[in-house]
Amino acid sequence: MKTTQFALPHVVIVGAGFGGLRAARRLARLPVRVTLIDRNNYHLFQPLLYQVATAGVSAADIAYPVRAVLRRQKNARFLLAEVRQVDLLNRRLLTSAGEVSYDYLILAVGGQTHYFGQDGLAAHTFGLKTLADADSIRDHVLTLFERASRESDPNRRRALLTFAVAGGGPSGVEMAGALSELIRLALPRDFPGFDVSEARVLLLEAADYLLPAMPPDLRQAALRVLQRKGVEVRLGARVQSYDGQRIELASGEIIPSRTLIWAAGIRAVELVQNLPVEHAAAGRVRVDPTLQLPGFPEVFVIGDAAYLEDEQGNPLPMVAPVAMQQADAVVENLRRRLDGQSLLAFQYRDPGMLATIGRNQAVARLGRFHLRGFIAWAMWVAVHILQLIGFRNRLVVMINWAWDYFLYERALRLIQTPPQPGRLPQQEAGRLGNG
Amino acid sequence: MKTTQFALPHVVIVGAGFGGLRAARRLARLPVRVTLIDRNNYHLFQPLLYQVATAGVSAADIAYPVRAVLRRQKNARFLLAEVRQVDLLNRRLLTSAGEVSYDYLILAVGGQTHYFGQDGLAAHTFGLKTLADADSIRDHVLTLFERASRESDPNRRRALLTFAVAGGGPSGVEMAGALSELIRLALPRDFPGFDVSEARVLLLEAADYLLPAMPPDLRQAALRVLQRKGVEVRLGARVQSYDGQRIELASGEIIPSRTLIWAAGIRAVELVQNLPVEHAAAGRVRVDPTLQLPGFPEVFVIGDAAYLEDEQGNPLPMVAPVAMQQADAVVENLRRRLDGQSLLAFQYRDPGMLATIGRNQAVARLGRFHLRGFIAWAMWVAVHILQLIGFRNRLVVMINWAWDYFLYERALRLIQTPPQPGRLPQQEAGRLGNG
User: Fold this and answer.
1) Which pLDDT belongs to residue B403?
2) Which regions in chain A score pLDDT beneath 70?
3) Can you say whether residue B351 is alpha, beta or left, with left for phi > 0 and alpha for psi between -120 and 50 degrees?
4) Interface check A320 vs B, CB under 8 A
5) From A99, A146, A174, A248, the catalytic residue
6) Which of B103, B411, B434 sits opposite A101 (nearest CB)?
7) Whole-number CA gyration radius for chain B
8) pLDDT digit string (tens) for A31-85?
9) How many CA atoms lie within 13 Å of B357's alpha carbon, on the beta-carbon side?
10) Confidence (pTM)
11) Is residue B67 classed as helix, strand or coil in its secondary structure?
12) What is the dihedral of CA B248, B251, B255, B260, to 10 degrees?
């Protein structure tokens, strides 16, 4: 740190997700020092995590080193650390790399998987928020196929090949669609003699419809596409418990399954839940319309961690466009504060919503327009590839997708780590060979 | 398995490395049933492991699913399992997936890191044999750079930035060269203010020369290139012990270092060492010139697991060309045996040897020709990219390399897993920020 910069206000940003990284870059123009803190050294393009989980792209394709993003920004530095506590009164953070003081703080820490108090679910389900989650799902699914290929008992084989996804929002819909295609299109080529009809993909949703943020006609369209792709969509199906072997629904129904991917909810991380301020649902903190923390005007909270309502009184959704627009708003408000101007209230401009369902289908709401089918899917591909940071990543992801699209091939279906103990029952000794 | 095949002899191959996979494919033409067993579901292109370790390519670029390779081969199937014991008398294998009987067995299980009885070394060093090894090294090196960037004590910073490689064979030379380039060319762009002269790469070799399989002029050339690239080559330096903090040499010298990559030896895996037959150095089993296990003519051993001497009485090296030529020889001998002909003795045709040293330097021995410098490097790139199985992998690796070569950029420098406990000392609490 050069001495000439010491007089500049120190803005600390926690979280290098969509909101935090955008805020850091936008702050290049302001007379401040910026420290961006994240526990990972990469920015993760979360919308494509389900593609890593279903062997469509590899982890490196959707993650980009934060230092490479900030390299040319002279007023910013990166700190790899876990933030353990926010000391609001003393304006400092306690982190795994020591204390960090701030003049202004932007909390952009995102969310984590929400089990709604059913902690038993956390032990046996797969989340879908981190690279490790996605790698685990891929390894697990591929390992189950290997197990099933040498299992002679039909009931056990069926349980091994029953893959359940809980949650009918965009993540659950995308995951179920991609999983069904992996199973129906890619894996049968690898497992000769494999009977696809033995494998099931279940999408379990507690409500009576999918994609709550979509208009009814697109919800219906998504449902039909999923069913056409072989996904068993179960509406009104609330998961009661799961022990790694059997899913119990609130109705009392039991579904034997070795796989439950939990995409049913997101809540604020502990760091945010522990803040001594007023919280809303899912542990989000209520912020002022200016995105400031009430009582702490030097602290801004954005993205999944912040609770704010739109003009109709609906909570702003936990999606990337909200976080990125809030990042822009916070940087503008910081500029105003440094210039002695009054701050502006945040206004969300809803850009619409896209959800993809497999290789060539999607539903999209764009203002007044409702799109579905191939055109919506093509738009989804274009939007996501363009948003991916880094030209090389874009190129590699495009090659992988083009390859996959035209050849139904998945070169990435590697089991990189052995299955976790406890996740699978001990192997039954079978007899193979001359038999 | 179709009933018409039941009468066909069952050939079981253990190991999907260079030898095992080649044997499986060559057996397509013989009237046999083939079962290929590996504990991983992929073939690993080991010569490029050091590139994964130094963030040059990602794991998926150098691994290819075995099932994709065997997909069109009707007489072959794949079994994902760990082989725990070979029951030679009863002609069966005990595996994690049950028993597997064989009529003929081809053991192609490769080697593992050899610590020469110094088991203490295994606990704190990094091997370089598996994808997990390579991922661990990359995560570790990048994490140390993050730590060093916020460490104010010069001695501790120096220990964090001292990277040692033990072993002056091709693996050690390649690893040290690539590590030095990662540190000198790529990372300084990510860590502004980082003083490259604080970082050291040490190559420790017990003998008085590098690359024992190379002629003396190329050993000298490799040494000079490494030194020019900033690698401190220490000849006559035998590692005595390492506790994760300090490397002790046989001379009594202590080198404080948080990283020791062990590329100093390969030995046969336990499965081979436990065979009740005569063993040679490094636990390899002595095989007949026909590659059969003495006393068990239905068992063939190839590659790193087999000990055989050339006409001059030198042991055949543990390299891919030996394994692949032996695979061809075993398949030919199997054909002869099925046809009632006498078996042939294996003859190794030495294709030469290549070792690369960073971005644009290599040494190569090709028959009478000794090559060095850029031309040898270009040949190395061509040979390796052509050998990589799968066109997509080739394309992606080429893009990564071209990108890296022209832009000194490493998009893959992601820390994917948190550092292992014990590997690094507990973080000292520092004070950052306005301080």
Assistant:
1) 57
2) 1-6, 384-413, 417-435
3) alpha
4) no
5) A174
6) B434
7) 23
8) 999 999 999 999 998 888 998 999 888 888 788 889 988 988 999 999 999 999 9
9) 30
10) 0.87
11) helix
12) -50
